[in-house]
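IZUMO family member 4
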Amino acid sequence: MALLLCLGMTVALARGCLHCHYNFSEKFSFYRHHVNLKSWWVGDIPVSGALLTDWSQDTMKELHLAIPAEITQEKLEQVARIVYQKMDQLYQGKMYFPGYFPSELRAIFREQVHLIQNAIIESRIDCQRHCGIFQYQTISCNNCTDSHVVCFGYNCESSEQWEAAVQGLLSYISDWHKQDTNMRPCTAASSGPGTYRTTPAFLVSPNFTCLEPQHLANLTLEKASECLTQH
C-alpha cells in the first residue's frame, strides 16, 4: 500500500487523457472528416461522428478512478501509439457493411479506456517501490496541464530507512500546514487567473486522522509510524 499525497496544478479547459497528446487534434480531425467514407449505410455516419466528437468527454466519464486522472508523458505516448495504430488500420479499409464501423470504433474506445486506467494505476503502484516521499511528473487528464504526484512509499529496507521516511513525511506535512493560505494548494480556491490546485489527499482522507492539523503538535515519530502501518 502507499499513502498518496496528490498535488496537481491546472490551467486549461480541455478534457480527456488522449486529448492531451500533441497529435490528437490532427488525428481526430482526419477521422471525423473521413467518417462518411467508411460505411455503406448512411445511419452509421452520425453515430460514428458522435463517437469521435465526444471521445474525450466520454473517456473521462468511463475512467471511474478513485484517484486523480493524472498520467505520465511516457504512458500517454504508449496509449496514443496503440490507439492511433488501431484507428489508422480501421481507416485504411474500404467501405464497411452496416454497423461494422461504429462497432469497431466502440471497441477501440473501450480498449483505450482500459489502457489509460492501467497506466494511471501502474504509476501509483510504482510508488510502493520507494521508501518515503517520492514525486513524479504527470499530465492532468482533466485539463492537459503539467502536474505532479507526491506519494509516500513503504518499501524501506531497514528500520533506519523507515524512521527517516516517516520523519520526512512529518516534515512535509508540517511545511504544508505552515504555508500561507493564499499559497497553499487547495481544491476549492483559485491561486491565480484560471489556475487551480488540489489538496494533498491525506488531508481529506478519513483513514489518516492522526495526520490532521489538530494532532500535529503532539504527533511523535512512533505515533506517526503506528498510524501509517495500520492503514
